[in-house]
Design brief:
alpha+beta; 5-stranded antiparallel beta sheet; elongated
């Protein structure tokens, strides 16, 4: 990792934990082969190298299949590719190291630490009839003798597993388990920076009160109120510096503030989001409040988004309101909004060109004089150390407090000493205008977004919304388009890329198996076991109540390499028994007995290695 400039971070550490289960596969197989040679009476000096050597080819291709199952993740593009970049690198390096260790260090340790058993070793004939191996042998014999019935039952299980998968809730990436959360405060578009600062101070006060109340309701072991909050940090007029990879700072704008909340226990963050959201919404009228958790994957923004693109702003607003009504009709949505904001009241000067020309002033003179009076113009600059502070000159507040004061302004001509009251050459018109117009791919685009209700996934909202959107699309005027954004868009792109990754992995594994078996048919026998492993994964997700997210998709792809690596070594034993003259039925059953112990050990090691990651490794 040091040579490849891979740092220790969330994904690389998770990759190392995943690798712990895979690393033991090759050494366990090598160690089992050495013990088998010792049981056959060979001395340690011979058994320690003969056992791994016999399985060298099978272990090599098992390692290759695991590597090619992960290496195609380097083909992922965009934020998802950057996020998971270290996963295939760390796992590939770990598997290569495992291969080297299984052929060098394991025989070295076996020579000094393993010894032949003192008790007589059971023969293969005895294993077929006694103990756990006997029950396994009889079960497999029954299934082979009634192969068509067994195949029919297994086919039903596979179909049931994929039916379960179709009913799992889809998810892109879960929320992160972090000490940090944040609040976005949005005032009306024409709000001043002073109003935003007052709203931010009020929000801080309400947050402190709500967190203190939460601490009183959840006391410490000594009965005293728990200290929930560690710090509050507020940014007014724009977002703060990027403090998390998936949070994009907002540009400078006077009607926006952001409050960063840090708690002492990261497990409380998820419990606090909804109560704090409700407290701020109830106590800050006229302010749009968005309480947000950090995302564990690539940035998504608002979880449910609908984008409408076109040319006419009025029509876009009408269409946007129809989509908002559609959102509000759903039972599991709230905090519905758009990114244009409300229209604001505007006063516009309409200049009478004829009167202005008779008075000897131009439109430029009117613009310069009115802007200088109301907004000011830069007269000079004040230097203070390395800072340059512009000095503006404009009318006093009482001289420009009312709209009627604009009519009393004098407009000075650029050439000559002429001046004329602004009210004599212009009139004031009043209108409602859109302050902010967003564009996407050069087209005016309004984005309507919402949050799912607590305990509801964005995919559940989107699934209810799609049929209504399909009907809505039919009524769109010509030249207007609709697209679904948010988590749905990222999920479609991410799962599409993962499908390509799966295809590349399967083809790479197929080529490796063709080279190993020197047959184009036997690899299909290996792949026939994959649906059964996937069925178990889907059933486990359903039992645990977990959604089928991006990381679950990644786990299913990884499962392909693990299953194939076990079957490769099993096939090697079957080929060995066939070469010894056994019939196919006996070769399959005997190979199963010989491979049962190492397979169970490696599967148990992988599962036990992943349990701490599942319990304490965060949402990933």
């Amino acid at each position: 990792m040091h040579l490849l400039h891979v740092d220790l971070q969330q994904v690389s550490i998770a990759s190392l934990v995943i690798a712990l289960g895979l690393l033991v596969d090759d050494p366990v197989v090598a160690n089992d082969a050495i013990k088998r040679e010792l049981d056959q009476g060979r001395p340690r000096a011979i058994a320690s190298w003969l056992g791994p050597t016999k399985l060298a080819r099978a272990i090599l291709y098992a390692t290759i299949t695991n590597i090619v199952a992960y290496l195609p993740y380097l083909l992922l593009k965009g934020d998802t590719g950057r996020f998971l970049y270290t996963l295939p690198i760390v796992l590939t390096c770990s598997l290569v190291a495992s291969r080297v260790v299984s052929m060098t260090f394991v025989p070295f340790l076996a020579y000094y630490m393993l010894a032949p058993r003192k008790k007589p070793v059971k023969s293969l004939e005895e294993l077929r009839t006694q103990g756990f191996y006997g029950r396994y042998y009889r079960t497999c014999s029954y299934l082979i003798d009634h192969r068509w019935k067994a195949f029919g039952v297994s086919l039903v299980l596979v179909i049931g597993g994929f039916w379960i998968q179709s009913h799992l809730k889809p998810q892109f990436f879960p929320k992160d388990l972090s000490y940090l959360s944040y609040v976005d405060l949005w005032l009306p578009e024409d709000a001043s920076i002073m109003s935003t600062e007052e709203a931010a101070k009020a929000a801080e006060k309400y947050l402190l009160a709500a967190l203190a109340d939460f601490g009183a309701k959840h006391p410490d072991k000594d009965g005293k109120p728990s200290q929930v909050l560690r710090s509050l940090t507020t940014f007014v007029g724009g977002g703060g510096p990027r403090f998390w990879f998936s949070v994009e700072p907002e540009l400078s704008q006077p009607n926006y503030a952001q409050i960063l909340i840090e708690v002492r226990d990261k497990h409380l963050t998820n419990q606090l989001v909804d109560p704090l959201q409700k407290a701020l919404m109830d106590r800050l009228p006229g302010v749009r409040v968005d309480m947000r958790q950090l995302e564990s994957g690539p940035p998504v923004g608002f979880p449910v988004q609908i984008r409408i693109s076109g040319e006419d702003t009025t029509m876009l607003r009408v269409l946007g309101e129809r989509v908002k009504t559609m959102f509000r009709s759903l039972p599991n949505t709230y905090r519905v909004k758009d990114d244009w904001g409300a229209e604001i009241f505007q006063a516009r000067l309409k200049i009478n060109s004829d009167k202005a020309n008779l008075a000897g002033v131009t439109n430029v003179d009117v613009a310069r004089s009115s802007a200088a009076a109301m907004n000011g113009f830069v007269a000079t600059e004040l230097r203070e150390g390395r800072l340059t502070i512009p000095v503006k000159v404009r009318l006093r507040m009482e001289e420009r407090a009312n709209i009627g004061d604009i009519e009393n302004l004098y407009v000075y001509a650029t050439e000559g000493q002429l001046r004329v009251p602004l009210g004599q050459i212009s009139t004031i018109e009043y209108d409602m205008e859109t302050e902010k117009i967003a564009r996407r791919n050069h087209f005016r685009t309004i984005t309507i977004s919402c949050f799912p209700a607590p305990g509801v996934l964005p995919s559940e909202v989107t699934s209810l919304l799609i049929p209504k959107l399909n009907e809505f699309k039919k009524s769109l005027p010509p030249g207007y388009t609709l697209a679904i954004g948010g988590e749905y868009e990222e999920q479609v792109k991410g799962f599409g890329q993962m499908t390509v990754i799966m295809i590349v992995s399967v083809l790479s594994i197929f080529l490796a198996l063709v080279f190993q078996f020197k047959s184009a048919v036997k690899p299909f026998l290996v792949f026939s076991a994959l649906p059964y492993g996937m069925t178990g994964a889907f059933a486990a997700l359903a039992i645990m109540g977990s959604p089928f997210g991006f990381m679950a998709f990644l786990g299913v792809i990884s499962l392909i390499g693990v299953i194939v690596s076990h079957i490769i070594v099993l096939f090697d034993f079957i080929e060995e028994k066939l070469e010894e003259g056994e019939d196919l039925r006996s070769a399959i059953l005997d190979a199963g007995i010989m491979r049962l112990r190492p397979v169970l050990i490696t599967v148990a090691a992988t599962v036990f290695a992943l349990i701490p990651l599942a319990k304490n490794g965060g949402p990933l």
